[in-house]
Amino acid sequence: MVERAAGLARPLVFTNGVFDVLHRGHVLYLEQARAKGGSLVLALNTDASTRRLGKGPDRPLNNEMDRAAVIAALESVDLVTWFDEDTPLALIAELKPDLLVKGGDYNMQRLAETKVVQAYGGHALAIPFVDGYSTTALVARIRAQS
């Protein structure tokens, strides 16, 4: 992973998440993240890590291999990996991206990941969400119609 990332164009942008049911909000977010640098590395929560997030006992709906395949097909994403821990701290420390990007619902100053990135001279940025798009809300809407 580190070797593959070393060959990517800089600045290297890093983001992470579940990306369970890909929707327009995800795609726009990833396009915006990619536009902030030369390449984008996306780390997916593994299935076990996703379940620990409390999104529900039946989540993720798509397994980690399927989610990775879908994300890897996006033009905005240069490299996909995953992490099994609750946060990607170890992966970030190893990759040393120039920019950490998260969704607008995160307070970047409170994240341990931000402190790791800033310690080696990197930066952290929250990108505003596109209103009206949420996998959790989409799943709830589908279940209500069933």
Describe this structure in words.
The protein contains seven helices and five strands, in the order H-E-H-E-H-H-E-H-E-H-E-H. With 146 residues, it is α/β, with parallel strands linked by helices. The mean pLDDT is 93. The protein has a five-stranded parallel sheet with strand order 3-2-1-4-5. The protein has a single domain (2-145), classed as HUPs (Rossmann fold, 3-Layer(aba) Sandwich), CATH 3.40.50.620.
Brief rundown of the structure:
This protein has seven helices and five strands; from the N terminus they run H-E-H-E-H-H-E-H-E-H-E-H.
How many alpha or pi helices?
7
Radius of gyration: 15 Å
CATH superfamily: HUPs
Parts with pLDDT < 50 across at least 5 consecutive residues: none
| CATH class descriptor | Alpha Beta
Sheet with the most strands: spatial strand order:
3-2-1-4-5
